Amino acid sequence: MASRSTLYTTEILRLAASLHEPHALEREDGRAELRSPTCGSRISLAVQLDDSRRVQRLSMEVHACAFGQASAALVERHSRGRTHDEVSEALLALSRWLADEREKAAGWPGMMALEPARSRKARHGAILLPFRALLAAMEAA
Which of its termini does the chain have fewer beta carbons within 10 Å around, N or C? Predict the structure, then answer.
């Protein structure tokens, strides 16, 4: 079994630490609060969309392991300008990569940092949760 230091690489810990604190949006168009049944991770996500229904801003409160926090940081960094379809396609590609149905983590920048979690199915729910929360918030808008 991998040690904690092997599982949580420096890159994962840096990503997790880079996640911004929740903040008020100029306008909140949609909100979602989701929990992963596999690991108990929780995310509350608010989104502001532009006139084309692309992500303009978002704010998250994340209660998750370092993998969930790192994934949330990547969603936070790279979601601006994305449509619902683009986020949905990224979620599908990420799910397939985590399930070893794809070799590369295509669809979203930075996901290769989460490589150590691929063999740990209990972590997959936390990694997918930020994408699911963003989709749910966009659908609520």
Answer: N
